[in-house]
Specification:
five-stranded antiparallel β-sheet; alpha+beta; elongated; six-stranded antiparallel β-sheet
């Protein structure tokens, strides 16, 4: 009943009621725009009557129940509400615009790839000086390699990676979050860096699960999987467990571009190393041949001496018998020794198929723990092989320590727990280069490393990392022993 009445009264009161109540006549100027600062009281009263919840707003006004301040306040509230609606619409428009203008290099999920791209080619892709296949090549980016995106064109992208600045065809790149998705789906390795003081590694994805070891802040570990709140990491060959995802920073292991000059230098060094390994192999074969020749010569000399002695004895016996029987029997001459036959020493015409042996690694220089540590560090980068004991062909943790110590005349068993019973136990606060450090896997000693000084150890870690150098407390050490002195 009242809503139609309010609309009519709003117009009437503008001319009469309001004038008599408030004695206010707004000044109107030609072309003036009205807002909350200059609209007249009549307009405000009209807004009040139109929007008020009162059953009889006219009576309220005429009877003095509603004052001019009430009308002003009600109008201000209505104006504020309208402003908020306008602002909301403006924000929505700007959001739509920002989404429309979003860059393909944005990375809100895989932040590692913000303003970056990864190479999705099956192999290496060329980086050229210009956006053309006719342009010179300045370097290459391998599959899974990362680059900073400078500019994306219709067919080519200008990038920076390593020391290279140039162009890669768009078809070989994935950008921003898409780069992270591609890495996730294509098995690009990931690492986790601990970002808390001490992090527990548990057997299962449960805070009630048994803790198998502790990890220190700043150390990096290989990632097997990420599932919600838990990240599965590999610590060593004997420990693989789960940590809370919020306490590690996980990134993909991407590579940088290699320039033409860098590749040429790498090829030169690789050739030098191959030549050195080949010469070491030849020297090893020559030494073996000479040793075999010496052994053969010694054997033949021994046989000749034995034959001569036997012949002499036989002759003497025959002469004695002849004298006894007065029979003149001629003594048989001693047999002529066979000519010595030297084994073949010619080197094979082709390079050996197996990897160079540790003969190409510098031999131990002395007999101290420092010498042992320095010798052990030369094998960093060689592979981890479970059950192996070859310093260059592959070894597990105890096989590595066993073989290193063997070069210094110490015999150790091929078992980490057994090795912990050798030597003299020392405090973790009194470590010296050459000491053995042991680590628990939750059920006993399961890993061993060689302390090299400076808070670091060298050890055969796992099949992915091979022989590497780590902080001595990259996991919690439980025992240290000293076998060789300083």
């Amino acid at each position: 009943m009242y809503k139609p009445t309010k609309r009519v009264l709003a117009a009437c009161l503008t001319a009469g009621v309001v004038f008599s109540l408030f004695s206010t006549t707004p000044e109107v100027k030609a072309g003036q725009e009205y807002d909350s600062s200059n609209v007249g009281i009549s307009g405000k009263v009209g807004e009040y009557i139109q929007n008020t919840e009162s059953e009889d707003p006219v009576a309220d006004l005429t009877n003095g129940i509603v004052t001019k301040a009430d009308v002003e306040s009600a109008f201000a509230e209505a104006t504020t509400a309208d402003s908020l609606v306008d602002a909301s619409n403006t924000d929505a428009s700007s959001t739509d615009a920002s989404e429309t203008d979003a860059s393909p290099t944005d990375a809100k999920i895989y932040t590692q790839f913000q303003d970056r791209a990864v190479c999705t080619a099956d192999g290496k892709v060329n980086i050229r000086t210009a956006s053309s296949t006719d342009a010179d090549v300045v370097g290459v980016l391998d599959r899974g390699g990362i680059c900073l995106v400078d500019e994306i064109g219709e067919e080519w992208t200008k990038i920076e990676s390593g020391t290279c600045v140039g162009y890669i065809a768009n078809m070989y790149l994935a950008y921003g979050d898409d780069a992270g998705v591609w890495c996730e789906n294509n098995g690009i390795a990931r690492t986790a860096v601990v970002n808390t003081a001490t992090l527990k590694v548990r057997e299962g994805k449960d805070e009630e699960s048994e803790c198998v070891t502790l990890l220190p802040e700043g150390e990096e570990y290989s990632v097997y999987s990420v599932s919600g709140d838990w990240t599965e990491v590999s610590v060593d060959d004997d420990v693989r467990g789960f940590v809370k995802s919020e306490y590690v920073s996980v990134t993909f292991e991407t590579t940088r571009a290699v320039s033409v000059e860098e590749q040429a230098e790498a090829d030169r060094k690789a050739k030098e190393e191959a030549d050195a390994a080949w010469l070491a192999y030849l020297a090893e074969q020559e030494a073996k041949a000479q040793a075999a020749a010496t052994q053969t010569a010694n054997t033949q000399t021994t046989n000749t001496t034995t034959t001569t002695n036997t012949t002499t004895t036989t002759t003497q016996t025959t002469d004695a018998a002849a004298q006894t029987q007065t029979t003149d029997t001629a003594a048989q001459p001693a047999a002529e020794p066979a000519a010595e036959t030297q084994p073949a020493t010619e080197a094979p015409t082709e390079a050996p198929t197996e990897a160079p042996t540790q003969a190409s690694i510098a031999a131990p220089a002395g007999q101290t723990g420092v010498d042992l540590a320095n010798y052990a560090c030369q094998f960093v980068g060689y592979p981890y092989v479970w059950g192996g004991s070859s310093l260059t062909g592959g070894a597990d943790c105890s096989g590595f320590t066993m073989s290193v110590y063997a070069q210094f005349g110490y015999s150790l068993p091929h078992n980490a727990a057994a090795q912990s019973g050798y030597g003299v136990e020392v405090s973790l606060s009194d470590l010296q280069a050459g000491d053995l450090l042991f680590y628990s896997n939750g059920g006993g000693i399961g890993h061993v490393a060689i302390y090299i000084g400076g808070g670091s150890v060298v050890h055969a870690s796992n099949s992915r990392d091979g022989i590497k150098i780590s902080s001595y407390n990259y996991r919690t050490p439980v025992k240290a022993v000293r076998i060789i002195g300083q």
